[in-house]
Each structure stands twice: as structure tokens, then as C-alpha cells.
Design brief:
By secondary structure, this protein is α+β, with helices and mostly antiparallel strands. It is built from four helices and six strands.
Length: 179
Amino acid sequence: MRTRENASAYTDSKRIESTKILASLKIPLACFLAVYVLSATAAAASSEQQKNAGAITEIRAVLHAQQDAWNRGDIDGFMSGYARSGSTTFVSEDALRRGWETVRARYLKKYSDRAKMGRLTFSDLEITPISPDAAVVLGRWKLRRAHDRPRGRFTLIFRKTTDGWRIVHDHTSAAAPTQ
């Protein structure tokens, strides 16, 4: 009988010992797992931020190139910021225009000479990526011309195309003229 009691006591003491060891490992193991999960989450977030930063930089470059082309009097250069597609849309002056060629024709007609084009400035840009291949851009535009200073706001939807980031939808509004 004693041997069985001794064996049982020995087994019980080993169980208690292993329970103590496991209990002492719970906190470090939980800390390790928490740090691991947080690190993985931070790495994924950092990767997403880097992708967003790249998209934002590329979109800013498109807008900067458009501004520069406009200020050189180069409507075709300005239009290179738009997707060359029949589905590209432009909304302004209570009119909806569809297609790259239609948008281009509107710009060529409305801004037929350098005096009408003036000097363009984009400002207050807010670029928000909404997926890996799409972003929304809010901003202000101003023209400085000899006799007036038209201005307004725009909302652009950019898509990443085979040609890079391009505008697929442009909704531009003009502010009321100042007196």
C-alpha cells in the first residue's frame, strides 16, 4: 500500500510542480503572443501606409504636371492627367460630359487662348486612397487672369491605370465671382 501511496504522492507533487511551471509561463507567453500580434499588425499597417504614401506622391505628381502644362498653355499636356477613356466623366456648369475627347474639346473651346487660360494654381489638396487602385482628391483651383480671378473647388476620382494614376471622374465647381 505504501508504494501506491508514495507513487500517488510523487505523481501529485509532479502535477503540482508542472502546474506551477505552466502558471509561471502563462504571463511571459501571453506577453510574447501580444507583442508578436502587435508587431505583425504594425508591419501590415506600415506596409499599407507605404503603399498609400506612394500613391499620394504619384497623384500629387500628376496634379503638379497638369498645373505646369496649363501654365505653359498646353491643354493636351493638361489632359494627360485624365484617363483616355470613353468612360471618363467631367461635371461642371450643370453639365455632364463623358469621354476623354469630349472633355478635351470642352477645354479647347472654353480656354482657346492664353489670356483665357491665365495662370492655374491648385491648393488645399486632400488625397485619400480608398483602395490599392483608387483615390479621392479634394482641392481648390484658382486662375489668375488679366481681368479676373475665377476660383473654385474640385473632387477628383483617380484610378491606377496601365498609364499610371489618372483622373476618371472630375467634378469641378466655380465660386461666385467676388465684387
